[in-house]
Amino acid sequence: MVYRSTRGVALSWRKSSASGDENTCVEVAALGPSVLVRDSRDHSAGVITIGHAQWNALVDAVRNGDLDWR
């Protein structure tokens, strides 16, 4: 995980269009070589920062159903 200050940086947060008007998902923003991830319901809960390779691996795992817990 990379820790860096984002004070004064305008971030473009995005969430899945599949979530509609719900706030029950995560939001992501790009910051240089990193991807920032936060809870869409609780922005004060903090941010996880991961690299693009780790983000791509996470997205692939979700798409492949590797993280299904049901």
TrEMBL record:
InterPro entries: DUF397. Residues 12-63 form the DUF397 domain. It comes from the Bacteria. This is DUF397 domain-containing protein.
